[in-house]
Design goal:
By secondary structure, this protein is mainly α. It contains four helices and no strands.
């Protein structure tokens, strides 16, 4: 059994590293596509309602009057930039 662990440990570490790098590559590709879609929406003047995509925790923070907490939660959950999160939360506060 010990012989197998000596062989499997490096294999599992290498596999984990490979999967992590693959995941990071997909995250970058998804973010790139999001930026392109945002640019297309802005360029074409399409109205897009982000309120349906807001996590429940963010909505609760906005309803409770905690704007900064809502921004922090939105960034943590979605991975958005500070500017993007601020714009979305400000739009939600304005509509509330």
């Amino acid at each position: 059994m010990v012989e197998y662990f000596g062989f499997l440990a490096p294999v599992l570490v290498a596999l984990g590293l490979y999967l992590y790098l693959l995941l990071e590559e997909y995250r970058k590709k998804i973010r790139f596509l999001e930026v392109k879609i945002d640019a297309l929406i802005k360029h074409t003047g399409i109205e897009f309602d982000d309120t349906t995509l807001v996590p429940v925790e963010v909505s609760k923070a906005i309803k409770a009057g905690h704007r900064l907490k809502a921004i922090r939660l939105y960034r943590k959950i979605t991975g958005a930039s500070l500017k993007e999160a601020s714009e979305i939360v400000d739009a939600l506060v304005k509509n509330t």
